[in-house]
Design goal:
Blueprint: H1 2-14, H2 18-31, E1 36-42, E2 57-61, H3 67-72, H4 81-86, E3 93-96, H5 114-123, E4 127-134, E5 140-147, H6 152-160, H7 162-180, H8 193-203, H9 208-215, H10 219-233, H11 238-247
GO molecular function: DNA binding
Organism: Pseudomonas soli
Domain HTH luxR-type: 184-249
């Protein structure tokens, strides 16, 4: 397997896009028995009250056609127990949706997760492995491999390949990381360029009047930008708006 991972590293380095990298990874993951892949990345995985944010970047291979819509538009990410475990886990883990699977999920699944559980049973993708990768400045990426589970042997086989799959996931993330900035942003909040600029100056301790002088704009205009940013961030005042903008990495250069 080490030789195959080394070969994968070489291929990933030459791939020009995240989609090409996913194709390379999918080939090797299929040799380990994983029928489908889900990769996701978010610069901020949780909102300011601790709820999961739909990832900024999602790539799928061999998943059902409605997966993207359900997870990214219909709220399945927020009730996906695998994602909930991944955000607080530092180690790769095996999971199963079968009641007798005896994995970490059995301690977490409840009625809230019923839509996800039912969907994966219907899709016959009830077993898998997930590798959470916590990144600098708070970002989170995960690579998940999915497969059917007809017997205990399927789960045991997934466990046997956890280490190899983890190597694949880290190889993908290392190659993909430089590409992510081009297509990722926090989905939760969208601020205008001027709103971000005003909040950056507010973070430096400037008043609205001082920001107006810096940007050569009227006090009324600056106050409007700051108020708009506060509204989008759900903040009660400018201090809270700055704190939440920092949380969502909206003030990053």
């Amino acid at each position: 397997m080490q030789a195959k991972v080394a070969e994968l590293n070489a291929r990933l380095a030459s791939d020009k896009s995240l989609d090409e990298q996913m194709d390379s990874v999918a080939e090797l993951a299929a040799e380990l028995g994983f029928d489908a892949l889900v990769y996701d990345y978010s610069p901020v995985p949780l909102d300011h009250v601790g709820e999961l944010i739909t990832p900024s970047v999602v790539r799928l291979r061999q998943t059902p056609k409605d997966w993207q819509d359900l997870w990214c538009s219909e709220g399945f990410y927020q009730i996906d127990p695998v994602q909930q475990v991944a955000v607080s886990s530092i180690a790769p883990f095996v999971w199963s949706y079968l009641p007798k699977g005896e994995t970490i999920l059995q301690r977490h699944i409840d009625r809230r997760h019923a839509p996800v559980v039912g969907y994966l049973h219907d899709a016959q993708l009830t077993c898998g492995v997930t590798v959470p990768i916590h990144l600098p400045r708070g970002g989170l990426a995960t690579l998940t491999g999915l497969r059917p589970q007809a017997s205990q042997r399927d789960l045991d086989d997934a466990r046997e390949h956890l280490g190899d799959f983890s190597q694949i996931a880290h190889a993908l993330q290392e190659a993909a990381y430089p590409l992510l900035a081009k297509e990722s942003s926090t989905r939760a909040i969208r601020l205008t360029r001027r709103e971000v600029e005003c909040l950056r100056w507010a973070a430096e301790g400037l008043t609205a009047g001082e920001i107006a002088d810096k940007l050569n704009r009227s006090l009324a205009t600056i106050s409007l930008h700051l108020t708009s940013a506060m509204h989008k961030l759900g903040a009660k005042n400018r201090v809270q708006a700055v704190a939440r903008a920092v949380h969502y990495r909206l003030l990053d250069p």
